[in-house]
């Protein structure tokens, strides 16, 4: 398997994401700098990690979405390559138009850093097939802009098409319909605010994030 983790100025979860990919797939991912004009060829999986790209200036993820490398990420997503955006990565995905809606300031106006209960809403996606349907898992969040917003029509479409992958099972940040993670139309792009890469070994306090990586790696026909 050939995976890549994209790093932007201000990313701070790129190392954790790379470690999670290597521990679970057995292969270290390529580390790709945002300013590179071209993505390496033949990628099977692309991860946009969490952090504070460009200091969250303008809007979280807005400037990173304009980085040269994103043209390649958008093209790869259109070819069906699985793309995972976590936290700031989710914000980059909405800002770049790969996912609908926006991540606004948390309803309580504070940074939230704790482990939350998440319900697996769709256990048949590329990213969630190793979870049991309706399972509630524990995954950490760490963000100030995690309040998911989309208009009612978009929300209804996301729900109707099974594109809500994860929903908060408790009150967290004011997200519309408690949405924590969504899929694109093709099901190969997932954006989520909680950090699965921070819950892959017992020393993290829980391993509920492992199945997400196992799901997507199992779906790849390459070893
Ligand atoms: N951990 C993160 O990726 C933080 C995301 C984002 N910059 C926020 O605080 O909303």
UniProtKB/TrEMBL annotation:
GO terms for molecular function: glutaminase activity; phosphoribosylformylglycinamidine synthase activity. It comes from the Bacteria. The active site is at residues 87, 195, 197. It catalyses: L-glutamine + H2O = L-glutamate + NH4(+); N(2)-formyl-N(1)-(5-phospho-beta-D-ribosyl)glycinamide + L-glutamine + ATP + H2O = 2-formamido-N(1)-(5-O-phospho-beta-D-ribosyl)acetamidine + L-glutamate + ADP + phosphate + H(+). PROSITE patterns: GATASE_TYPE_1. SMART domains: GATase_5. CDD domains: GATase1_FGAR_AT (cd01740). Its EC number is 6.3.5.3, 3.5.1.2. Pathway: Purine metabolism; IMP biosynthesis via de novo pathway; 5-amino-1-(5-phospho-D-ribosyl)imidazole from N(2)-formyl-N(1)-(5-phospho-D-ribosyl)glycinamide: step 1/2. It is found in: Cytoplasm. Its main location: cytoplasm. Keywords: ATP-binding, Cytoplasm, Glutamine amidotransferase, Hydrolase, Ligase, Nucleotide-binding, Purine biosynthesis. Part of the FGAM synthase complex composed of 1 PurL, 1 PurQ and 2 PurS subunits. NCBIfam families: FGAM_synth_I (TIGR01737), PRK03619.1 (NF002957). HAMAP family: PurQ. Part of the phosphoribosylformylglycinamidine synthase complex involved in the purines biosynthetic pathway. Catalyzes the ATP-dependent conversion of formylglycinamide ribonucleotide (FGAR) and glutamine to yield formylglycinamidine ribonucleotide (FGAM) and glutamate. The FGAM synthase complex is composed of three subunits. PurQ produces an ammonia molecule by converting glutamine to glutamate. PurL transfers the ammonia molecule to FGAR to form FGAM in an ATP-dependent manner. This is Phosphoribosylformylglycinamidine synthase subunit PurQ. It comes from Alteraurantiacibacter palmitatis.
